[in-house]
Design goal:
The protein is an all-alpha fold and 108 residues long. The chain has 3 helices and no strands. Helix 1 (3-38) packs antiparallel against helix 3. The model is unreliable at 85-89 (pLDDT under 50).
């Protein structure tokens, strides 16, 4: 395994874990928090949502939320570059020389 493929695998693994954590947070929020808040009074709902928004505004959340996106982008860029030998995903086109192309057969 080359150093580049090890780096690609590490970044891809980190991106997968980060996206899984963010997806889990959204799932818990959608399945547990919002239905629980829907049972409460409107004033309580607004107060709790404001408190949660204040709690979410911290460096750990921003790092995990934006880090998942950045790691996914870096992973995709590295992966595309490793498949084609570099160049941001551009693939080289192979052409055949006229002598190596098969001749059409006329017999049926």
């Amino acid at each position: 395994m080359t150093r580049n493929s090890t780096l690609v695998g590490t970044v891809l693994g980190a991106a997968t874990v980060a996206m899984g954590l963010i997806a889990g947070a959204f799932y818990i929020f959608a399945c547990g928090v919002m239905p629980g808040l829907a049972r409460s009074d409107d004033r309580v709902y607004v107060e709790v949502m404001r408190d949660m928004n204040d709690a979410f505004e911290n460096p750990v959340f921003f790092l995990s939320f934006l880090g998942a996106l950045v790691l996914t982008g870096v992973s995709a860029g590295r992966r595309a570059g490793s498949r084609t030998g570099g160049g941001c995903g551009r693939q080289r086109r192979r052409t055949r020389s006229p002598s190596s192309s098969p001749s059409p057969s006329t017999s049926r």
